[in-house]
Amino acid sequence: MTSRNTLIVTVAALVGLGLGATVLRGQVPVSQAQSTQATAPKLDETAARLQNEANTIDIVKRYEPGLVYISTEQTVQADPFGMMFGQGGTQQVEGVGSGFFVNAAGDILTNYHVVRDADRIQIRLLGNKQTYTATVVGRAPQYDLALIRPSKLPANLVRPIPLGDSDRLAVGQKAVAMGAPFGLDFSVTEGIVSSTNRRIPIGFSNGGSAQGITQNAIQTDAAINPGNSGGPLLDSAGKVIGINTQIISPASSGGEGQNAGVGFAIPINTARNLLTRLQNANGKEVRAPIIGITPGLVALQQSQSGPQPVALGLGSLTESAKAQLGLPARGVVIAQVNKDSPASRAGLVGGTSTRSFQGGQISLGGDVVTAVNGQAVDSLEDLQAGLIDRKVGDTVTLTLVRGGKTRQVKLTLDAAAFQQTN
């Protein structure tokens, strides 16, 4: 018997990030405090406030029509064990999120986690009760991005919001967040850019089963809450500078997460680099660029289908083992370099021998990648973090250790690095 129970679940931003709710308090000794006798120019607070208000009102009036309210439905098994006793069945899980038009064709950019596993996607526009069915054009779980396209949407209702340049952001500049927090569709909040280069885990790796790759994010104190996911973060010119994706959310006394003035947005330049690939994905998954190597330090993990290799970084080995093998303290060991790959064209070298140990094996004699563009790496995720916001033609600098000697190599991410889809 199929149950028609309906459970409404707000598609929430990924909260917490394992950081808890720690508050750091800085102290300045009183003896070091300084005072000044200079008289600052008098600020016309009324005029300044009105100018800012007028700017915000203008942004909302011009660009809020490009905001999209997204609702999803997913059929899930209510109680798989209840089926054994003639109970259980399925139920419809509903979610909400946000998105925005990125072109005149009606393509809508949003978060992957907003539409993840949805059986049905519908959109609604500002001041319009009509809903339109949408389908996923391309998905990029590692970036927590997806592109959806509505059907039978009149062209005159498509209002793209112009894209800005997230590489030119400055801490302290204005930030306006649009979205549907807690299902309160078409809401607007205002704040500032708190940081332009905050490194946090974003998206999902391993086929969407694990937390994603560490990458750069914009931090803002503009209020972002569950339901804001996928909505735009705009600057004072009304251009999109980021896509709202996560919050740090300490639990309240009732156990519910709440906004703490620390929200994160995916830089719009990262999304811009993916747009063409998402538009041409035909509903498939777009992945982060690869350089074409096979990891050389693996542990064999037991599964139902037998032992499965799990890549490790050198940090997982004991200091004595690394000293005995002449290996650096941290890094990704290369077992094999694929033909016709960016790694092979850059001259990277794979291992020449393999040594087994209890529960795994390691390749020796090849390169060990210890950094990408100066950022230390000790896992495949770390390596991808240095590549994830790149585009075709970009060059990265790899720090390698071979035979105990350190060197740097320039590697170009050509078309081969971006061709994989699933």
Envelope shape? globular
The value of Rg in angstroms is 25 Å
**Low-confidence parts, pLDDT < 50 over ≥5 residues?**
1-37
Total number of helices = 6
Distance between the termini: 35 Å
CATH class of the largest domain: Mainly Beta
Number of domains: 3
Strand and helix order: EEHEEEHEEEEEEEEEHEEEHEHEEEEHEE
CATH topology of the largest domain: Pdz3 Domain
What does this structure look like?
This protein is mainly β and 422 residues long. It folds into 3 domains: 6-13 and 65-153, Trypsin-like serine proteases (Thrombin, subunit H, Beta Barrel), CATH 2.40.10.10; 52-61 and 161-250 and 258-279, Beta Barrel (Thrombin, subunit H), CATH 2.40.10.10; 293-418, Roll (Pdz3 Domain), CATH 2.30.42. Helix content is 12%, strand content 37%. The strands form 4 sheets. Strands 3-4-5-8-7-6 form a 6-stranded antiparallel β-barrel. A 6-stranded antiparallel β-barrel has the order 9-10-11-14-13-12. Strands 15, 18, 21, 22, 23 and 24 form a 6-stranded antiparallel beta sheet that branches. 39% of the residues are buried. Mean pLDDT is 84; it is low at 1-37. Belongs to the peptidase S1C family. It comes from Deinococcus aquiradiocola. One of its GO terms (molecular function) is serine-type endopeptidase activity. Keywords: Hydrolase, Protease. InterPro entries: Chloro_Bact_Ser_Proteases, PDZ, PDZ_sf, Peptidase_S1_PA, Peptidase_S1_PA_chymotrypsin, Peptidase_S1C.
